[in-house]
Amino acid sequence: MLCRIRWAQGAFATGECDQSSMPVETSYTVMMMRKSAIAAMILLSSLCAGQIPLGLHQAITIALSQRPELKAAAARVESAEQLRRQSGLFPNPRFIFRSENIRASDFNYGQDADTFAYASQVLSVVNSL
Questions:
Q1: Euclidean distance between the first and final Cα of the chain, in Å?
Q2: What single string gives the DSSP state of each residue in 5-74?
Q3: At the N or C end, where does the chain have fewer CB atoms within 10 A?
Q4: Confidence band (pLDDT; 50, 70, 90) for 21?
Q5: Does pTM surpass 0.85?
Q6: Crossing angle for the helix pair 68-87 and 56-66, nearest 10 degrees?
Q7: pLDDT greater at residue 46 or residue 62
Q8: 50 within domain boundaries
């Protein structure tokens, strides 16, 4: 009884319980529980490892994936590369369809409207002097 009261106050965990006043079965049970707890901690310690050894490549990969400054710098480099690629391409062609002289009343589209359609492509000519 003395041990159970102290256990409720936290004394049992610190080993202040007088095991001589406990029955033999309770003492054996407590001892087995302690051994089981220690064995479980040892066996499960590998699952709770706080650090793992890293190689240089792994450390760089983790740093690149977790630092916002490095992500922003990588995005700027990618943007500059794409702008360089785009500068070597032709601009998009233009297709223009326009209709003029459209009135609101007494209007025949086929006879009264002026309709235009044309396309254009800008060509960059270097050293054309």
A1: 108
A2: HHHHTTTTTTT-S-GGGS-HHHHHHHHHHHHHHHHHHHHHTTTT-S-----HHHHHHHHHHH-HHHHHHH
A3: C
A4: low
A5: no
A6: 80
A7: 62
A8: no
| Single-letter amino acid, residue 107 | F
Is residue 11 classed exposed, middle or buried when 0-12, 13-18 and 19+ CB atoms within 10 A define those classes? Answer: middle
Please indicate, yes or no, if residue 54 is contained in any of the structural domains. Answer: no
Q: Is residue 23 part of a domain?
A: yes
| Tokens at 84, concatenated | 């360089």
Structural tokens at position 17:
């319980």
Tally of domains in the chain: 1
Q: What is each CA distance from 96 to 32, 72, 103, 117, in whole angstroms?
A: 89, 39, 21, 6
Amino acid in position 24: V
State the Cα–Cα distance between residues 111 and 109, nearest whole angstrom. 6
- The pLDDT mean for the chain works out to 76
